[in-house]
Design goal:
This protein has 295 residues and is of the alpha/beta class. 41% of the residues lie in helices and 17% in strands. The chain has helices spanning 7-12, 27-37, 42-46, 69-84, 101-110, 121-133, 173-183, 204-211, 222-231, 243-260, 270-282; strands at 91-95, 113-118, 139-143, 157-163, 184-196, 235-241, 287-294. The chain has a seven-stranded mixed sheet, with helices on both faces. Strand 4, helix 7 and strand 5 form a beta-alpha-beta unit. The structure holds 2-acetamido-2-deoxy-beta-D-glucopyranose (NAG) (2 copies). Residues 89-91, 113, 138 line the site of one 2-acetamido-2-deoxy-beta-D-glucopyranose (NAG).
């Protein structure tokens, strides 16, 4: 019923009851869109409008303070701003922008223009509300799919970013990488963050806890993911393996879910599901990356 085997989707599949969607061309898109439209508890566990796992600076900077879930979500965006050199001169496109939190933070902290697209009309409605409250920022949000970008968005952006959105459709990653290139201006930079599977055969535990729950779909590991970008003739500038960050994020979610006692539709405690995801990330059966590409 859900498109990705990603650790987030596995948790939120239980909430995917609303199949109404106006812009989806295929079932993957419908599943992804409805899954986010109905996943309201994201705000409680993940922090307001945050729908991704974060970056924890204390792993690379011993003087940095350990962050919580929503702070780490913002720190990931800040890391992407800094790696991509995003400034007031930048015109940024966020592929799978969710409720627009990354675009808002980018526009706020750099003065850049930021356009976000997302397949979920619920997410875009929320993002447009935020944009209306912030007329001081150059924000633009629209419903759309990054597997088939509207031609008005082609060739316009100094920066293309994505945060854990490609994972829903890894079987279409070659197409997505071509769309990334299409959106970029001639000297454009792509700063891409994604959730991953493993390049190895995954363990029985992960298959049971993560994959079997939903019906297995393709999830690329670090190597296969990078090869796909390389095949699209994107030029790798920088690559980070964030598996450790993913494991910590899931451990934090497990603790919060435990405190709230949230359960999935089948009665399973979300705390247990998140804890299993954290263990899977520690074993590198699932992972997370951050990559910078030029054309
Ligand atoms: C994270 O910490 C900040 C600052 O102390 C706090 O405002 C916020 O509610 C916390 N968020 C979560 C998800 O724990
Ligand atoms: C940002 O958008 C404004 C208004 O559309 C435009 O005038 C400006 O040139 C844009 N800046 C960049 C860096 O694209």
């Amino acid at each position: 019923m859900i498109s990705g085997v990603l650790p987030g989707a596995l948790v939120f599949a239980a909430f995917a009851t609303d199949t109404s969607t106006d812009t989806c061309a295929d079932n993957d898109c419908v599943a992804t869109a409805s899954h986010y439209d109905s996943a309201i508890h994201y705000d409680v566990l993940w922090g307001q409008d945050n729908i991704h796992l974060g970056f924890y600076p204390h792993f690379i900077d011993r003087k940095a303070i350990p962050l919580n879930m929503s702070q780490a979500g913002m720190a990931l965006t800040q890391r992407m701003i800094s790696l991509g050199d995003i400034s007031f001169k930048s015109n940024v496109l966020d592929l799978g922008c969710g409720k627009g939190a990354a675009c808002v933070l980018i526009a706020e902290s750099t003065g850049a223009n930021c356009t976000g697209i997302d397949v979920s009309s619920g997410n875009i409605a929320r993002a447009l509300n935020v944009a209306r409250e912030r007329p001081d920022l150059q924000l633009d949000f629209r419903v759309g799919s990054f597997t088939d970008l509207p031609s008005v968005l082609h060739g316009r952006f100094t920066h293309v970013i994505a945060q854990q959105s490609f994972v829903h459709v890894h079987d279409q990653l070659p197409t997505i990488m071509q769309q990334v290139k299409l959106a970029m201006a001639p000297t454009g930079i792509a700063v891409l963050n994604d959730l991953l599977g493993s390049d190895r055969q995954i363990s029985i535990d992960t298959r049971q806890a993560v994959h079997d729950r939903l019906g297995s779909r393709m999830l690329l590991g670090h190597k296969a993911w990078r090869l796909t970008a390389e095949d699209a003739e994107l030029d790798l500038q920088h690559y980070e393996n964030l598996d450790k960050h993913m494991a910590l994020a899931y451990a934090q979610l497990a603790a919060a879910a435990q405190a709230w006692g949230f359960r999935a539709a089948d009665g399973t405690l979300f705390a247990d599901i998140y804890a299993a995801s954290s263990e899977a990330a520690k074993r590198h059966d699932i992972g997370m990356n951050l990559a910078v590409y030029s054309v």
